[in-house]
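We emphasize that the prediction below concerns an isolated chain of 185 residues; any contacts that depend on oligomerization or on bound cofactors are therefore not represented. The input was used exactly as deposited, without trimming of termini.
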Amino acid sequence: MSAPSPTARRRHFVLHRWPTALGLAVAILSLVTGSNQESLAITLAVAATCYLAAAALGEPWTVWPAALGVSLVVVASKLLGMAWWAGLGGTAVVLVGVGLALRVSRSALLAQALALVGFGGAAVVAVFSTPQAGVVVAGLALASHAIWDVIHLRRKLVVAPSLAEACIFLDVPLGLGLIVLGFVS
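Result of the prediction step, given as a token string:
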């Protein structure tokens, strides 16, 4: 059997790095279209809530549909005249209840719930801060969420590795990029 050609190796590499490309594309699109402290805070809170959803359901692959579902909660909250963070807070309570009812790993559920409290708390602080301080708080918290992503990517637990990889390449460039843009402009 012969070794794969360089073209085949490149194609294999690209096809297996789609989460990296997706994360970077979303980060760049967000930076180019003018993200602000609230959009950063929402991104941070949605990411943490998705991780909680996967822990509550006990299936790592559910984090991808959870990303859509949690995003819809943000939109629905706004349409109903609620604060997006209140909608996500209610969703988090329901998810913890679901996780307890399904008897999923208590340690995973607790870790994700505590992470949501920390990251979600930072998101809410960012929203209620001045615009420049809010961007710094949300940007640093989002970039630090990449540490959480790396832990999950390496352990291949709780969330699908593809989502953890995509989040790393969304969180760091978007969080730090918006901070830099905030100070340059």
